[in-house]
Specification:
Layout (H helix, E strand, L loop, with lengths): L10 E5 L19 E3 L5 E7 L3 E5 L5 E5 L4 H16 L1 H13 L4 E16 L5 E5 L2 H7 L12 E14 L2 E14 L13 E7 L5 E9 L2 E9 L3 E8 L10 E10 L6 E11 L5 E5 L5 E5 L5 E11 L1
Antiparallel strand pairs: 1-2, 1-18, 3-6, 4-5, 6-7, 6-8, 8-9, 9-14, 10-13, 10-15, 11-14, 12-13, 15-18, 16-17
Length: 312
C-alpha cells in the first residue's frame, strides 16, 4: 500500500539482487549491509494512530472499531485500518488475540513499511523476491495500459505498540509482523529459496523485556539470536510454499516492564532481513539501543526497517 507515503526517514538496504538483476556499483566491507537511501526504491512508510478509535471485542469475540470523535482525521485512520485488515487478515487476527489475552491493553498505534518487490531467478536456480528501484519502476511503467509488469507484490513489515498498567509497573508490548502480499497476476509457481531470515523488535530504554515469542507460517525451524534488556531477534528457516497461499508471515512479540508509569512519547523499532543464499546474519544492540544486523556477505540478502511512535 503506497497510499499513505510520508517523508521516508527509513534507511533501506538492498544487498545483491542475484541473477539477471542490474544494480548500481557499490563497495562496502563484507560484514556490513550496503546501505541505500529509500528514495531510490519503491518503499513507503506510514502509521495508523488509534487515539480516536476504541478496539473492543463483542460478546461473540468479534473485533469492533468504535470512533471516539467526529474528526475527519479519525475517520481517515479508521478507513486505513480497515484497508489493512482486508489486505493482511493476520493483522486483525493478531489484535483479536491480543485483546483476548488482556482486555485492558491499549493498542496505541500501528506503523508499517512497504517495499515493492519483483520475482527473480537466483544463481542457484531458485526463485525469490527482490525490491524494485524507482528508476526501474518508472522507466518500464505501462502508462497507456494503466499497469506495471515490473513488480509482483509487496513485502510489508508492521510494528505494533500496546501498553497497560499491571500492578506497580507499566508494561509495553511491541510486535513486528511481516507479510508477503502478492499481485493477483503472479503465478502459483513461486517457490522461495529456503534460507534463514531474521526479525527483530526493540523497545525504549526504560523498559526491561521479560517475555518474547516468535510465531511463523511455513517456517522449518527458529532460534533466538539476540536477547537483551531492550532488543530481541530471532532467525528462522523458510519452507518453500505457494506464493498464492500467502507464502509466509512471521510475528515476533516482546513485552517489557518499567516502574516508571509516566506517559512518554516513545518509539518501538523493528527490522527484517530476507536472505536467498548462504548468508550469516549477526544481530547486535547498537548505540541507540536498537537491534542492528551485520552480514557475512552481501550477495543474497536485503533488509528493511519499521517503527511506531506514540504516547506509551
Amino acid at each position: 500500500m503506497f497510499k499513505k507515503a510520508v517523508s521516508l526517514m527509513l534507511v533501506f538496504s538492498i544487498i545483491g539482487f542475484g541473477k539477471g538483476i542490474k544494480v548500481d556499483a557499490l563497495s562496502k566491507s563484507n560484514d556490513e549491509p550496503i546501505m541505500v537511501t529509500s528514495e531510490k526504491y519503491m518503499v513507503s512508510e506510514g502509521q495508523i494512530d488509534l487515539d480516536g478509535i476504541d478496539l473492543e471485542l463483542n460478546s461473540n469475540g468479534e473485533l469492533e472499531l468504535n470512533v471516539k470523535n467526529r474528526k475527519s482525521s479519525t475517520q481517515t485512520e479508521l478507513n486505513e485500518l480497515n484497508e489493512h485488515f482486508e489486505e493482511v487478515p493476520e493483522l486483525k487476527e493478531k489484535l483479536i488475540k491480543d485483546l483476548e489475552k488482556n482486555e485492558d491493553i491499549s493498542i496505541k498505534a500501528i506503523g508499517y513499511t512497504d517495499v515493492m518487490v519483483k520475482k527473480i531467478e537466483t544463481e542457484d536456480g531458485n526463485e525469490d523476491m527482490v525490491p524494485v528501484s524507482k528508476n526501474e519502476y518508472y522507466s518500464t511503467y505501462a502508462f497507456s495500459q494503466g499497469q506495471n509488469s515490473v513488480f509482483d507484490g509487496y513485502f510489508r513489515l508492521y510494528t505494533i505498540g500496546e501498553s497497560c498498567i499491571n500492578g506497580s509497573n507499566k508494561e509495553l508490548y511491541g510486535a513486528s509482523l511481516s507479510k508477503w502480499i502478492k499481485q493477483s497476476s503472479v503465478s502459483d509457481k513461486y517457490r522461495p529459496a529456503a534460507y534463514e531470515d531474521s526479525i527483530s523488535v526493540s523497545l525504549p530504554s526504560r523498559y526491561t523485556i521479560y517475555s518474547k515469542k516468535l510465531s511463523t507460517e511455513y517456517a522449518v525451524s527458529n532460534r533466538c539470536t539476540l536477547d537483551t534488556k531492550t532488543g530481541v531477534s530471532y532467525a528462522f528457516v523458510e519452507r518453500p510454499s505457494s506464493y498464492t497461499n500467502g507464502i509466509k508471515w512471521a510475528e515476533l512479540g516482546v513485552t517489557g516492564k518499567t516502574s516508571n508509569k509516566n506517559t512518554v512519547y516513545e518509539k518501538i523499532s523493528s527490522s527484517y532481513v530476507h536472505t536467498y543464499g548462504k548468508v550469516t546474519v549477526t544481530p547486535s544492540l547498537n548505540s541507540s539501543g536498537t537491534v542492528s544486523f551485520s552480514l557475512s556477505n552481501t550477495s543474497y540478502a536485503w533488509t528493511i526497517a519499521s517503527s511506531v511512535s506514540a504516547n506509551f
